[in-house]
């Protein structure tokens, strides 16, 4: 009984602690939610206002640009010739002039996506020229209709009953006052589909819409006709007030219109230069509706959080807290230097794995404590050997003396090649940075070294290197693991009486178990080779990794590879059939999806 109360008391403390921690965040979250909702409402309203002003300005600029281009055609020489002095032109000249001006009308039409057709009416020759028709007859009733339209307050835009929208330029305009015919009329028919697409960009909500509104006509893009009828009426009433404002003012009005159960956020911007308004309306629910659900979500999350807190508190105490505390105590013992710790766990959950890995870690630490000293010693020996190889004075002296003899003999071809290979060789030997390089780079260095030796021995020792398989090129290996092997072949592999001396370097790879492959780089010579006794002696030295005597370059490479890649790596020697020696540098790598990767 007391034990049960005691356990409940601890669990209650955990629950109370979580509640105390989460309560301020809950209060702050509620306030932030309310503040954010209001902020979103204001920002959406500002965004809609900015958007509608942008589209209003874009429409003004585009119509103004089309008007300016249209007015430039007033002074066109061909148009003046056809309308003012047509009697001075022959019929052929008229035809040529008409065709030339029609081409300009085509260019005018293509200057804007909002122009569907460009035309000119020329009463003196009773012709209509358009971007789609070379020349047609101008009916008198059509001319009279043009003159009547000119007397209306259109501000550059004419909307006719046939659902067409025009921009016209009359020349000269003073003749219309006297009732005389104009010399010509330039007309641009605007593309209604393009204007509809323009409105679609403003508002594409399902129950929303956009429109261009004038007193006597409008262009609408909406499926919510009932809402638009109410909104457009309000906008037309407001336009009467907006016309009386100073020309520099840019009236923008936004308000919420309720249509049935719909609440629509409406924004309208008036254009004094065009005497029209651009309006857009969007359902308030579409842009702000999700904010209304946040409060419900908040209460739901709070209830779920309370349940989670109770369950999590109990879970922490029963499942995690006790085994984790035990694991922490064991880590502290290891931290203090006690490596005799071993944990046992009866359950088969994740802590069983953690305990086993902890025990493996302690055992591995014991092993590493002993191996790290040997590895440091081997690394120091390797570094000394590399430094000795890098600062080999005899190789340097012999190379420069040979270069001197070639230049003195004017053997510029060989001296040029020799200098290139010698530069590559010393660049690789003296480079700073990582001590591990791709196998392809290591073989390139070996090639440079072999080319130098080929020139030094005046081709008495030939050399071939077979291409490295693509899968092996990017294997990362320690630097200078191949040069000591090749250098040993040149210095000790051939005697003075040997003829047809040849050195060959090639790579192979074979699959091992557990998804591993063994990459081997073979250095093969046809020299004097080794006796069976010498081979046994050398192999015994490679197996004796604890030998403290000074080791050769080949033994140094062997021990470096075994320390880096494990027991499957190293240098292997074998007699070559027909005489000579094969030295193989073996590196185990992981093999997956036809791609080889280093295995640590």
Automatic annotation (TrEMBL):
Membrane topology type, per the record? Multi-pass membrane protein
The UniProt transmembrane annotation reads: 6-28, 294-317
- Enumerate the Gene3D superfamilies for this protein: 6.10.340.10, Histidine kinase-like ATPase, C-terminal domain
> Which segments constitute the HAMP domain?
318-370
Primary localization class, coarse: membrane
Q: Which UniProt keywords apply?
A: Cell membrane, Kinase, Membrane, Phosphoprotein, Transferase, Transmembrane, Transmembrane helix
InterPro entries xref list: Bact_2-comp_sensor_kinase, HAMP_dom, HATPase_C_sf, HATPase_dom, Sig_transdc_His_kin_internal
Tell me which domain of life the UniProt entry assigns to the organism this sequence originates from: Bacteria
Q: What compartments host this protein?
A: Cell membrane
> Can you tell me which residues the record assigns to a coiled coil?
none
Please state what the protein is called: HAMP domain-containing protein
Q: What is the lineage of its organism?
A: Bacteria, Bacillati, Bacillota, Bacilli, Bacillales
């Amino acid at each position: 009984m007391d034990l049960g109360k005691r356990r409940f008391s601890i669990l209650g403390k955990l629950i109370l602690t979580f509640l105390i921690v989460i309560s301020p965040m809950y209060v702050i979250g509620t306030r932030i939610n309310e503040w954010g909702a209001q902020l979103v409402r204001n920002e959406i309203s500002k965004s809609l206002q900015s958007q509608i002003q942008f589209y209003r300005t874009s429409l003004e600029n585009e119509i103004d640009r089309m008007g300016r281009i249209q007015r430039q055609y007033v002074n066109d020489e061909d148009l003046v010739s056809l309308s003012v002095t047509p009697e001075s032109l022959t019929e052929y000249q008229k035809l040529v002039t008409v065709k030339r001006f029609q081409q300009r009308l085509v260019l005018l039409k293509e200057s804007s996506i909002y122009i569907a057709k460009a035309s000119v009416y020329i009463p003196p020759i009773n012709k209509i020229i358009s971007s789609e028709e070379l020349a047609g007859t101008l009916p008198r009733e059509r001319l009279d209709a043009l003159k009547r339209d000119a007397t209306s307050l259109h501000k550059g835009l004419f909307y006719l009953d046939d659902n067409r929208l025009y921009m016209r330029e009359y020349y000269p305009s003073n003749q219309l006052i006297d009732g005389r015919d104009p010399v010509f009329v330039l007309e641009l028919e605007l593309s209604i589909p393009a204007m509809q697409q323009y409105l679609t960009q403003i508002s594409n909500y399902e129950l929303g819409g956009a429109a261009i509104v004038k007193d006597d006509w409008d262009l609408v893009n909406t499926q919510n006709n009932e809402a638009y009828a109410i909104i457009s009426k309000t906008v037309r009433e407001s336009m009467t007030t907006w016309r009386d404002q100073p020309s520099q003012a840019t009236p923008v009005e936004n308000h919420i219109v309720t249509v049935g159960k719909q609440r629509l956020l409406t924004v309208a911007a008036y254009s004094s230069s065009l005497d029209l308004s651009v309006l857009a309306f969007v359902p308030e629910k579409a842009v702000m509706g999700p904010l209304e659900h946040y409060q419900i979500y908040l209460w739901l999350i709070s209830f779920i959080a309370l349940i989670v807190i109770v369950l999590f508190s109990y879970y922490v105490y029963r499942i995690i807290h006790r085994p984790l505390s035990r694991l922490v105590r064991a880590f502290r013992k290891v931290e203090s230097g006690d490596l005799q710790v071993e944990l046992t766990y009866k359950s088969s959950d994740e802590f069983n794995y953690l305990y086993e890995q902890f025990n493996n870690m302690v055992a591995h630490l014991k092993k590493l404590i002993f191996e790290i000293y040997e590895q440091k010693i081997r690394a120091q020996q390797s570094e000394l050997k590399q430094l000795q190889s890098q600062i080999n004075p005899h190789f340097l002296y012999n190379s420069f003396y040979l270069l001197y003899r070639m230049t003195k003999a004017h053997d510029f071809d060989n001296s040029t090649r020799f200098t290139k290979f010698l530069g590559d060789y010393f660049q690789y030997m003296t480079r700073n940075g990582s001590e591990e390089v791709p196998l392809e780079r290591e073989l390139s260095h070996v090639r440079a070294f072999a080319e130098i030796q080929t020139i030094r021995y005046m081709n008495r020792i030939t050399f071939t290197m077979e291409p490295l398989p693509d899968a092996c090129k990017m294997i990362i290996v320690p630097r200078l693991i191949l040069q000591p092997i090749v250098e040993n072949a040149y210095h000790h592999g051939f005697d003075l009486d040997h003829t047809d001396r040849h050195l060959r370097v090639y790579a192979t790879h074979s699959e091992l178990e557990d998804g591993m492959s063994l990459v081997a780089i073979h250095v093969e010579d046809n020299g004097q080779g080794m006796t069976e006794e010498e081979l046994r002696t050398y192999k015994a030295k490679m197996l004796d990794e604890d030998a403290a005597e000074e080791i050769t370059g080949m033994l140094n490479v062997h021990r470096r590879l075994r320390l880096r890649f494990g027991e499957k790596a190293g240098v292997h020697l074998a007699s070559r059939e027909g005489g000579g020696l094969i030295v193989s540098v073996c590196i185990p790598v992981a093999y997956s999806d036809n791609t080889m990767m280093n295995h640590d």
